[in-house]
Structure formats: structure tokens, C-alpha cells
Design brief:
Growth Hormone, Chain: A; two-stranded antiparallel ribbon; 3% strand; mainly alpha; globular; 479 residues
């Protein structure tokens, strides 16, 4: 019979939640600063996009690798190593003397994505089962807190003191959090030492890097360019070889016993949810910042401030979703999330130009649905695998979340570009014409995102319930 320290669990929950807060704060405050970074280093917009691309690639690989290493050598040990590297990277980024050094620092910073699967795994492994959904909800809510802090505070600091100052503010926070985790978080009790599958890691990295690079650079390089087509081919070949290797080797990089009906369902659903969320986020950013009458003409900082209510809703709803999940079950909460998301998105599409606060109200409803989905899916996943495999399972979940987030901007951008209209301004030298997305473009993107949310009902229906009062089959615990 497992014994749990409830006081320890409540004491550590804010620490693990702060991991999500730190990463979201650091990333969200970077976005408004990209034009200034571009100007300082005298680079093109295509060059500047590498600041985001290299972080995404590094983070995707590290989430899978360090998740598995956490199962093998201890999740706290891996989390501590990553956080030390993250402190170094954040500091390094703030003082980067050149664009090349900045990219190197951002690649190291990408290790921060591996904090999420390790934090979620530690909660499931060390907390009393009835506390896990609420704790997972609190950690999920910290994503919203990070955005709430970063958008106004990061925007103000960048505007008045420069983009480097935003990183200087993150360094002491990261250092203090790292010290606290090293000192107060206990090591996971379940470890499964095995041989490190170097070939499997290499094949996985080849597959992920080539795919993400092709998706990220396709709009700039051309979808039918030799570089992009070669990357897609390399990714497909690597994927086939990787699967064959994993099915035949004795110690696969991703243990074969990780995959079951619920893990596959939760991973597929989180891919779809991440896609839909990222697609609509880009959609709304354009709508807020395009000039009237085709948008609301907001600045980047104003856009961030108007996004605070939806982010604040996450803080309130996520822990409540976790609390009710133990009674209602993860699948019901997920289905409720789909209902809220579909209603919020479709009402937003119908009232795009009915006023900012009307639009924000409906967007907040959609964010509530997103929160229900995120909290329910991570619990559906973590309650469906043995605790000695949690790192690998949550790592793969993060990988597919990143894939969904990477694909969405390309699709949304294509729609916004192809369904556009022209506006002009009168100047002493004559009218100046430029292209802006039409109302039809925004509605199409929202409809696509809505369809994706509805598609999550399929994996949700296929999954077996593991929480709730009506669950007859006890949750399997490792010996």
C-alpha cells in the first residue's frame, strides 16, 4: 500500500506550478520584443524567426529525451539538471553579444519544455491520487498566470528598458526556483534503469527536427522547394526507421508498454487541441491589431492587456476542473471542454466586430473549454500508465502538443493571406494600398479550429475512464 505525505504535496504544488509560470513568462515576454531584436542585430524577419524555431526544435526533442531519462534516473534529478541549464540559458540570452550566440542560448533555453512532463510526472507519482487532478489543474493554471504577468509587465519593461532587461528580470526568478526545487522536492521513488537507446534518440531527433524545420520554414522557403521537400522526405524515412528500430530493440527509447488506448487517445487529442488553440491565437492577434474597419487597431501591449480576462479564467477554472474530475471523470470534463470551446469560438465568429468586450467575453468562454480539455487530458494520460513510465508518456504528450502548435500558424497564415482585401490611406503623394485579412478569413480560421475541437470527441469517446465515482476498475499501481 502506497503512503503519501499530504502536507508535502500541498507544499510542493506551488513550486511545480511555478515551473510553468516561469517558462510561460519568459516566452510570452519575448514575443513583443522580436522587432527590436531584429533591429539590434540587423537581421531579416526570416532570420528573426529562428529565435522561435530553434527553441521549438530543442524543446520538442528535450521533452521526449528527458522524460525518458527521468524514468531511468529520477525525475527530480533530471528536473534539477534542466533548471540549472535554463538559468544559464536565460542569463546568456540577456547578454548575447551576437545573433549566433543568441540562437545558441535559445537552443539551450528550449530544454525548459522538458520541465512540464517531469513536473506532471512528479505530481502523479508522489501525490495522493485524489489530490492529483486538483494539483494538475493548479499547474495548468500557472500557464495563464505566466501570460498575465508577462504581457503587461514584459511589454512595459521591453518598451522602457529594452528587451534584454526582460531576461534580466527572469534570471533571479529562475535561480530562486531552481534552488527551491533542489532543496525541497523529493526524488521520485519509481525508477527503471536501462540502457540508453542512442540510436533511437538519434532517429527520433532526425524525424522531429526535419519535420518541424519543414513546417516552420515552408512559408519562407516555399512548400515545393528542394529544401522543404527534402526535409519532409528525411522526416518520413527517419520515422519509418525509428518505428522499426523501436519495435525490435531490447531497450527502446520509448518503452513499448507506454502505449495503450488511453495514452494514444490523450496524445492525439492534445495534438488537436494545441493546433486549434494556436490557430485561433494567431487569428485573434491579427484581428486585434489590424486597422479599423478590418480590425481593432490595438498596439501589441494593448492586445496583451485585453487578453488578460481569458488568461485569468484559466487560473480560476483549472483547479476547479481538477476538483470535479475526481467525481465526474476525465472524459466528462473533456466533453464539457469541447462544448464550451465550440460555443465560445462560434459566438466569437458571429460577433467579431460587435465590440472588444463582447468579443473578449466569448473568447473567455472558449478559454474555459480549453482549460477543461487540457486538465482532463493530462489526467487521463497520467492515470493510464504505470508510474515508472510517466516521464516517457508525458514527454511524448508534450512532443505532439508541440507538433500541433507548429502546424497551426502555417495554416492560419495561409488562410489570412489567401482571403484578404485591400485598404488604402490617402497621403500627399497619393493613396497607399496594402493587404489585410478579410472578415471571411477570420471566420474560416475559427471554423477550422471549431472542427478540430469537435474532432477530439472521437479519441475522448475511445478512451477508457480512469477517474470518477462510476469507475469500477481500480487504477493499476506499480508494485
Amino acid at each position: 500500500m502506497d503512503s503519501y505525505d499530504v502536507k508535502y504535496a500541498w507544499r510542493i504544488t506551488p513550486l511545480l506550478g511555478s515551473v510553468a509560470l516561469l517558462v510561460m513568462y519568459t516566452e510570452a515576454m519575448l514575443m513583443p520584443s522580436l522587432p527590436r531584436i531584429q533591429a539590434e542585430f540587423n537581421i531579416t524577419p526570416a532570420d528573426a524567426s529562428w529565435i522561435l524555431t530553434i527553441y521549438l526544435i530543442s524543446g520538442t526533442i528535450s521533452a521526449a529525451v528527458f522524460g525518458s531519462l527521468g524514468d531511468m534516473y529520477g525525475k527530480k534529478k533530471m528536473l534539477s539538471i534542466i533548471m540549472v541549464a535554463y538559468v544559464f540559458a536565460v542569463t546568456f540570452t540577456g547578454y548575447a553579444p551576437s545573433f549566433e550566440v543568441l540562437l545558441l542560448a535559445r537552443a539551450i533555453q528550449g530544454l525548459g519544455m522538458a520541465m512540464f512532463p517531469l513536473a506532471f510526472s512528479l505530481i502523479r507519482e508522489e501525490f495522493p491520487p485524489n489530490m492529483v487532478p486538483t494539483a494538475q489543474g493548479i499547474v495548468s493554471a500557472m500557464f495563464g498566470v505566466g501570460i498575465i504577468i508577462a504581457l503587461p509587465v514584459g511589454g512595459y519593461i521591453a518598451q522602457n528598458y529594452g528587451w534584454r532587461a526582460t531576461y534580466h528580470t527572469a534570471t533571479p526568478i529562475a535561480a530562486l526556483l531552481t534552488f527551491s526545487i533542489v532543496m525541497f522536492v523529493r526524488e521520485s521513488r519509481y525508477k527503471t534503469p536501462r540502457r540508453i537507446d542512442i540510436l533511437g534518440i538519434g532517429l527520433f531527433a532526425s524525424m522531429a527536427v526535419s519535420l518541424l524545420l519543414a513546417i516552420s520554414k515552408g512559408p519562407d522557403w516555399g512548400w515545393y522547394s528542394p529544401r522543404v521537400l527534402s526535409l519532409f522526405i528525411l522526416s518520413a524515412v527517419s520515422a519509418v526507421v525509428f518505428i522499426l528500430h523501436e519495435l525490435t530493440t531490447n531497450d527502446p527509447f520509448i518503452p513499448r508498454d507506454v502505449f495503450n488506448r488511453n495514452v494514444i487517445a490523450a496524445t492525439l487529442a492534445i495534438f488537436i487541441v494545441a493546433y486549434a488553440f494556436q490557430m485561433n491565437s494567431q487569428n485573434m492577434s491579427y484581428l486585434f491589431q489590424m486597422p479599423p474597419p478590418y480590425g481593432y487597431g490595438l498596439t501589441i501591449l494593448q492586445t496583451g492587456l485585453y487578453m488578460l480576462p481569458p488568461a485569468a479564467a484559466q487560473i480560476i477554472v483549472a483547479p476547479l476542473a481538477g476538483r470535479f474530475m475526481w467525481r465526474l471523470g476525465a472524459r466528462k470534463i473533456a466533453a464539457m471542454g469541447v462544448a464550451f470551446a465550440v460555443a465560445g469560438y462560434q459566438l466569437s465568429a458571429a460577433h467579431l466586430y460587435s465590440g472588444l468586450w463582447t468579443l473578449i467575453t466569448y473568447m473567455t468562454l472558449g478559454f474555459i473549454g480549453l482549460t477543461f480539455l487540457n486538465v482532463s487530458l493530462i489526467n487521463l494520460l497520467t492515470f493510464s500508465v504505470p508510474r515508472q513510465r510517466l516521464g516517457a508518456a508525458t514527454g511524448i504528450n508534450t512532443v505532439f502538443r508541440n507538433f500541433g502548435s507548429a502546424i497551426a500558424p502555417t495554416v492560419a497564415g495561409t488562410v489570412l493571406t489567401n482571403f484578404s482585401t485591400y485598404v488604402y490611406y490617402k497621403t500627399p503623394l497619393g493613396p497607399i494600398y496594402f493587404s489585410v485579412p478579410s472578415k471571411e478569413a477570420y471566420v474560416i480560421n475559427i471554423d477550422i479550429a471549431t472542427a478540430m475541437f469537435l474532432a477530439t470527441l472521437v479519441p475522448i469517446a475511445v478512451a477508457r475512464e480512469v477517474l470518477g465515482q462510476n469507475v469500477n476498475t481500480p487504477i493499476k499501481q506499480p508494485a
